[in-house]
Amino acid sequence: MNNILRFAVSGVLFAILNLQGPCCFAADTLRLTLSDCIHFARENGATAKVVHLGYQSRKAQNAAIKADFYPQISFNVDIPGYQRAIVPVLQPNATFDNLPQSYAYSQGSLSLFQKIPFSGGDITVMSGLNNRVNFTGERNEFWSSFPFLIQVRQPLFGVNHYQNARDLESIQFDVATREYLEQLEDASIDAAGKYFDYYIAMMNIDNALLNVAINDSMYTLAKGRYNVGKIAENDLSQTELALISAQTDFERASLEADRSLKALKLALGITEITTLSIIPPEKTPEFTVDGAKALEYAIAYRSDIKNLEAQSMQSEQVLAQAQADNRFSANLVASYGMNQTAGRFGDVYRNPLDQEQISLGLQVPLFTWGKGSATIEQAFANQQRTKIQASYQKSQFGQEVEFQVKDFLQLQKQISIAQKGEQIAVRGYEVARNRYIIGKIETTELMLAQQRKDASRREYFQTLRSFWTSYYRLRRLTLWDFATNSRIMPNE
Length: 492
Known about the structure:
By secondary structure, the chain is an alpha+beta fold. It contains 9 helices and 10 strands. The strands form 3 sheets. The chain has a 6-stranded antiparallel β-sheet, with no helix packed on it. The protein has a two-stranded parallel ribbon with strand order 1-6. Helix 7 runs antiparallel to helix 8.
């Protein structure tokens, strides 16, 4: 190694050995804990932004569907129009003559429409005014009005589409809300993984630099011993090879750190040039998770379970519709109101006359070549299939939650074991290095001790990563915050 590289490595080694002292960061350095990264990812990450906008759109859709069941008031008006044409005109002898016609017309109405979910019918209240001015021959004017008109339409013996739509939308919006929360938990899982990926990459750089410096010192020591004949050329070659390997590991670790940093910034939605400094989690949560409770939360709050309920409701509605289409149905329409006509506007609202209408329409399928029974059979088969699929998927969900709980609890135990293993491997390497310096062990034993140290360090941080991603995956499966023992709800 040349002097410049040796000087750089020595400087880095000095910095690493002094990590226990106060650390100084540039003014634009962003120091992030795990919770900070997750907060950034859930609020500013590209994935989270798409999730937020999607849920915002779904909330607006739900509000629009709900508003459809409130009274709908509308005002309709035709701006005065004019028509001049030859049209068929009914004559007193019940024949038509094609005569020229020239007239202006206008009309306006105010209406209130209300759906009635519990019955499936609707009610309309209207008020309107019409005017027509005839320019054919002698000019004359005609006015007609209906001060009020109330009309009720009620389907009989059929499916209540209004109530079905409202019930289904209530469940589907609940599903959308739960899916939104689960997608945010997915963002948390992704952020936690990338947080540890970058942290592990930085630790690997520190470790690689330390190994370069140590192996450089060992190589220098080995050359001195070789020159005085204390070691063979093979031992010298091994220490040189170890130094080259350490330099290669450092270059590989630097590349991986750059990749993981960019991936982390992308997940957090940080686009500006900012230096990130990862603050490792001080301790892992010590709460325990009860498998039965976790399954209970999953069944109560998970979107998949609610979605199965929506699918079951849809299949039942389709079956009910098929059965209704295969029997007679009726539609009752009744209206009552007041109306009047006059030759001038001042008289059109005087002494209005009442008007009534009632009609009952029937539809009876007589012969459909078996279409009705086939449709019912199809709908029934789909309903049964939906039930079986729902039962099977619930069992799958239960197994998924069960094994996720076991995985989390196992990782919770493995963290302390991995941490203790790392500490033992570090102490073992220090002993081996000191023994090598005084010539008590061979180079091969020193290299093996170094490999055990590096492997145990990687294993500890990988276990830490697996623990936290497992924790957030458990949150995602149950929509339950086990740290606060509360249900995960959307922030309004």
